[in-house]
Every structure is written in C-alpha cells, then in structure tokens.
Amino acid sequence: MKVRIGADASADEAEAIASAMAEHVGGEVSVYVGDDAEPAAVEDAAGDTDSPSGTGGTTGTVTPPADDLGPTDREATLREEIAEILAGGPEKYKEQLPEEDKLFVRDRIDLWFSGDGNDFLFEDGRFAEFDADDQLPADGLITGAATFEDRDVHFMANDYTVKRGSMAAKGVEKFLRMQQRALKTGQPVVYLMDSSGGRIDQQTGFFANREGIGKYYYNHSMLSGRVPQICVLYGPCIAGAAYTPVFADFTIMVEGMSAMAIASPRMVQMVTGEEISMQELGGASMHARQSGSADLVARDEEHARELVSQLITYLPDNADEQPPKTPGRQPVASPAGIDSIVPQEPNRGYDMVDLIDRVVDQGSYFELSPDYGKEIITAYARIDGRPVGIVANQPNHRAGAIFPDAAEKAAEFIWKSDAFNVPILYLCDTPGFMAGSQVEKDAILEKGKKFIYATSSATVPQQTVVVRKAYGAGIYAMGGPAYEPESVIGLPSGEIAIMGPEAAINAVYARKLSEIDDEDERAEMEAELREEYREDIDIHRMASEVVIDEIVPPSELRTELANRFAFYEGVEKDLPSKKHGTVL
Questions:
Q1: Beta bridge partners of 538
Q2: Torsions phi, psi of 174, nearest 5?
Q3: Fewer Cβ in 10 A, N or C end of the chain?
Q4: In Å, what is the CA distance from 474 to each residue of 345, 426, 439, 499, 508?
C-alpha cells in the first residue's frame, strides 16, 4: 500500500505511520512525504523498515509488495451515475442555452470556482430525485461550498435544463439546508439564480410546508446582516424565485438575459389585460433605473462574475469581522486639484466623482446603483487601503437635490454598510430635499425619514465633509453635526444654512424689496442682503462657532480623512436599549 502524507512531516513521523498501518493491514506500506518520488519509509507486517532518506529505521530485505487493492464495479457504477447527474437535463434544453448566451449550470460553476484563489470544494444533495420517473438530475438545484477569491462561500445554482430551473420539494430542502449551514459557519452566500419559480403541479410537497419554499425568505431574513448575500440573475426569475434577489444584500442582473417579476407576462395579461414583454416587465434596465432592485447590471456572464469578485473585497465574511484591508495606493489624480474642481458659485454643477477620484485609492472606486437616484452616489472605495462606504451628493444631476429614490437608495446603502462594519464617508453638497407635489406623492417625507434614520442608527465610524452647500434637512441626512459623526470637516467653499441665499432673501425680504421702485436700487439692496446672508452661513462662521470640527485645505483632504478613519477605527456608537427601531 502506498500512502502520501503532508510535505512538512518528518522522517520519524513517516516511520510511525508506516509501522502502524503495516500492522493494521497485514502487509507492506510505503509512506511518501509531500511530492517526493521515493518513499520516506517502507514497513511490512514483520516490522522491517526501509528508510530511503537515511534518517532512522533499519535497511533490510523487503518482501515484494502484493498487488494494490482497487475499486470494484460498485465504484465504477457510482461514477457512471454521477456522470449522468452532472450532464444535467435533456440534451434539447442544453442545446438552447447558446441561443440565449447562457452557460450550462455546471460550466457556470466552473467559471466561478476554478483558477487561482477559486476552487469547487463539494456539492450536497447531488442524488436528489435520483429515483424519479422523470429526468430530474439534482432536482434542478445545485448547492455546495467553494472558495471564491480566496474566501469560503456557500452557493446555490439553478439548472435551467431541468424543468426550467423550477423549484420542488427536494431542491427546496437543499436550498434551506445551505442557508441554515451558512448561519452556522458565518460564511457569505452566493445565489446563482435562473428559475421559473415553483413547480405548480407539485406544490403540495413544498409550498406551504413549515420547511417549504416560504422558509427561504425566513432564512434570508435571519441571514440578513449576518453574512453578505449576493445574488446574480441569469434568466427570468418569476414569482417565488424573484424574492431571493430582492432579499439579497446585493443583486446583479445580466443585460438582455436577466429578469424578475412577481408574475410572468402571460399571467399579467390574464390578470390585467396588459400586453408586455419580459424585459419591459422586469428586465435589467428597468430594475436598475426604475425600481432600484438591481444594484449592478453586467454585460455577460463573465462580467457578472468580475463584478462580484470586486464587490466581495470590500466586505467581511460576517458581521463579527472587519472588512479586509489592502496596501494603500495613491489616488488616480492629485488631491491638489480638489479646490479647482469645486465651483465657488453654489448653483453651478460639477461631477462629484472627479473629487472622489482625488481622495480614494486608485482603482478602488466601485459604484452601486449608478442609474437609480442619480443625484446621490453610493459607492465603496478605499482610502489608504481601508474600505469605506461613500454617500455623496451629485451636483451634476438635479443640482444634488435629494429626491425620494435617492433617499431610499442612500438609506439602504448605509444600512448594509453598517451591518458589515464598513465605515461611512459623507460628501455633502446639496440644496436639501426636493419640494413639490410630485415628490410628495412619491413619499419624499417617508423615504427621507429612512435616510435620516439610517444615518442616525449607523454604529460604524462616520466622517462628514461639507464640500460646498449643505442646506435644509440635507445636512441632517448627510451626517451633520447633530448626528454624532466622528468628525465634521469643511472645505473653504462650504456653507451650512436652512436655505440658500436666493431663497432666503425672497422669503424674508420680498415685501421690503418690492417697495423699492428703482430697479438699480432694488438690485443693489438685494446684492447687499445676499452677501450679508452668505457671510452668516459661511463655513468659517461655522468653525468659529465650533459647529464643525475643522476646515482643511482641499489638497489635504485625503490625508485628513485617512488619519481620522485610522484613528477612529475601533469606535462603535452605542444605541439605546430597545428591541429595534420602527422605521423601515
């Protein structure tokens, strides 16, 4: 018998193993260390030991080895059965996949979990529905464990060649076990979804059961905030299958391939009479731009994997750990240009990303939901190697005013970042929450409340920068002084006020100005009032009154933030003792 042991084993250990095993099997045992071609010790049942390494043991005549035992037909049969399962559903369905630019699920798993730092470890429940009359390999749902970018993860993947990836009793049981094991291990979960929903003709076996498909979403809720849940959609996920992506912390859809909806277009037509395509109803573009349910949209399968490989680098394995750090890198552009980027005029637009690029490590900027609520940027990045979550107003879009969608987007991002111990950086340049009848109908107060609540309840270190204007309740949502950030610092262009000068002059002095008949005199008075008002709200006045902690030269902003995040790294805010807040 030949036995190979770890490369760090000693000769004495090799001899001990050889001796013990030879006595146990009653024959000769050769023990190899690591990848060595020659055995480190050879022992037969009579106790004669040969140590080719020359370290220990006695060299003597060795009885010629008997033929090694090998697998029987039972193993060969098992391997044939496994090969049949791995082949998936009917060939005709596999042949359709290239037409939809899809990979077969086993090839998809190979794409995800092979290569440096990636390895498929094992699968659970491969023989599910093995005895079924129909062809149901693995019951159309694969679960297991793998390493992904050097991280241990749980995963599930639907096999679209088996009943269109639909879910039934055995697949549901596998899914639930995977989730429950993730609660035990504290490792992230990756959902590779391509499911048409539950198998209606088999619903009595899984729909309303205590351990049925409804338990998916209970488990999602228990996992929420405990471990990162990341979902990638590869096809039209309908009804019950559509809830996994919206329960996940991060959802990636593939353009032209993915869709999710509460009901199929055919069902929608039956119920409402509306004729609509799957992509119009719940495609990637719709969910990325209108519902906000898609955090990212990928070009194809490879791009989807690449996006997740970037995302996971900002997140810890679970809520008990800190996000992984990397060696710091200089920003893509010099911080010396920040002051030139920010206009002095409060109503003039500019791209906040240009400022961010001069603060964060080069190549680390990773924006989420870029096409939803575009007046607020939500992104992960690193400052001197330390992950941070950025919430920044975007003056290039709607002047940076906060609309309902943007408020909700920011609230959810803060909530997720706080759950996984990612510090938060607020970059404030906003005229405040938008006013008007339409935004009231769109629940600006309700969604604005969620934004303020998330900022108030986050326990991770938070730094706020008043870049330019911080008007109205915008400064509240954006981590203002009252919200106990670790620091509030200002740039020399900063202003903090109930409202901007134009609105304030109109609100307070409209009647007085209207009484001045001479246009030139009225314009002069208006300019004087505006200047007085701006002096009152200038960042220097706020620093003088110690409303903010410091004004920093823009060229030093990156260094200032790096130092402050490093200093406050271990800080966590204490919340009042309570069951939980009532704001969702």
A1: 495
A2: -65, -45
A3: C
A4: 18, 11, 15, 10, 21
Matching residue, tokens 């369905």: 93
Instruction: Of 168, 176, 154, 160, give the one whose Cα is nearest residue 199.
Output: 168
DSSP 3-state of 569 = coil
Residue carrying the six token digits 């990612």: 422
> Closest Cα to residue 227, out of 167, 180, 164, 285?
180
Tokens 């959609």 found at: 233
**From first to last of its 584 residues, what are the pLDDT tens digits of the chain?**
787 887 777 887 778 777 877 776 667 888 888 778 888 888 886 545 454 444 444 444 556 666 778 899 999 999 999 999 999 999 999 999 999 899 999 999 999 999 898 999 999 999 999 988 788 999 999 999 999 999 999 999 999 999 888 888 899 999 999 999 999 999 999 999 998 877 776 666 666 677 777 888 999 999 999 999 999 999 988 888 899 999 999 999 999 999 999 999 999 999 999 999 999 999 999 999 999 999 999 999 999 999 999 999 999 999 999 999 999 999 999 999 999 999 988 889 999 999 999 999 999 999 999 999 999 999 999 999 999 999 999 999 999 999 999 999 999 999 999 999 999 999 999 999 999 999 999 999 999 999 999 999 999 999 999 999 999 999 999 999 999 999 999 999 999 998 877 777 777 767 777 777 777 777 777 777 777 777 788 999 999 999 999 999 999 999 999 999 999 999 999 999 999 999 98
CB 361 within 8 A of CB 355: no
Handedness of CA 271, 274, 275, 276 (dihedral sign): negative
Q: Two tokens at 210? A: 């205590």
Query: 427, 465 in Cβ contact below 8 A?
Result: yes
Amino acid identity, position 572:
E
Beta strand pairing call for 250-254 and 141-148: unpaired
Can you tell me the distance from the alpha carbon of 372 to that of 295, in angstroms, rounded to the nearest whole number? 9
Interacting residues of 455 by C-beta distance below 8 A, sequence separation 6+: 414, 426, 462, 476, 477, 478, 479, 483
**Three-state DSSP class for residue 561:** helix
C-alpha distances in angstroms, 13 versus 145, 289, 501, 528? Answer: 32, 63, 82, 90
